[in-house]
Amino acid sequence: MSRPKIFLVISLLGCGLAVFFLLSHREAGVEPSPTVVAGIVLYGYTDDGEISWVTEAEEGRIEEGAEELTGVTIRFPGDEEEDLLISAPALTGRSGLRRLTGGVRVELGDELRLMADTIVWNDDTDTLSSPHIELVYGKIEGRGERFNYDIAGRLAVLEGGVSGTISREEPISIRGERAEESEGRLVIEGDVVVESDGKTYRCPRLEADGSGEDIILSGGVTGSLSDARLSADTIRIDQDGISVSGSVVLDIDLKGENGA
Fold it and tell me: Is 207 helix (H, G, I), strand (E, B) or coil?
């Protein structure tokens, strides 16, 4: 993505405060410090003249391209998608690469929320990244390492090991190597382990919606039940219960019944 042009709008209140403080310093014979102004708004534009992002800050300063802002909110307008919103106590950096710190929150619609201590915003590649992230997706709560978010594609990817819980009448614990969320579906891949109510399932891939009521295990699933072992190509867990399909094998342990 080409680097957007940036325009700065400073509220009249901010300018008035800045002038007041500068005059006060001069009257007292004190060397003025770099000006801090209130009510900052920054706009980023694409080469086509479309707004790519809008940053608002309670106060801050911009000197020689370097930005130091506090009380920050960033909005990335969506075309057909909902707007992506980021809020953070502080932002530092310059055009192209900025760091959000102090407890960052990313929201997309009503279902997807991401939380991190620090997030790096790369405006050149149109991405967000963090060494650790917590995710809330509807009834699914998770955490992972090496987080990356494609802003234009609205694609969240967690790597380096992920884990979480799906809130249901019987909570489901999940973990895997990699996860991504896009277009209303969460996918976890790589040695996926699913545990609930004394049952354990292993598979290469899990897919779920934000409600947590439609979970699909696929790629060859094995399950350990209280008195049986199960294998199948696909297992589906939904409001109707558990259904299996494809090369189903059920090995029932009868030792408890016949005493053998």
Answer: strand
Nearest CA among 198, 187, 205, 134 for reference residue 164: 134
Q: With contact defined as beta carbons under 8 Å apart, do 207 and 218 qualify?
A: yes
Closest C-alpha among 206, 204, 82, 186 to residue 135: 186
Enumerate helices (H) and strands (E) in the chain, giving the number of each.
Answer: 2, 18
What are 119-146's pLDDT values in tens digits?
999 999 999 999 999 989 888 898 998 8
pTM, to two decimals: 0.77
Distance CA 77, CA 51 (A): 8
Report the first-to-last Cα separation within the chain, whole angstroms. Answer: 68
- Which ranges in 144-204 belong to alpha helices (H)? none
Q: What domains lie within the chain, and their CATH numbers?
A: 155-260 (2.60.450)
The span from the CA of 214 to the CA of 211, in Å, is 7
Q: How far apart are CA 192 and CA 220, in angstroms?
A: 11
CB-based contact 162:205 (threshold 8 Å) = no
pLDDT 10s digits, 30-46: 444 556 788 999 999 88
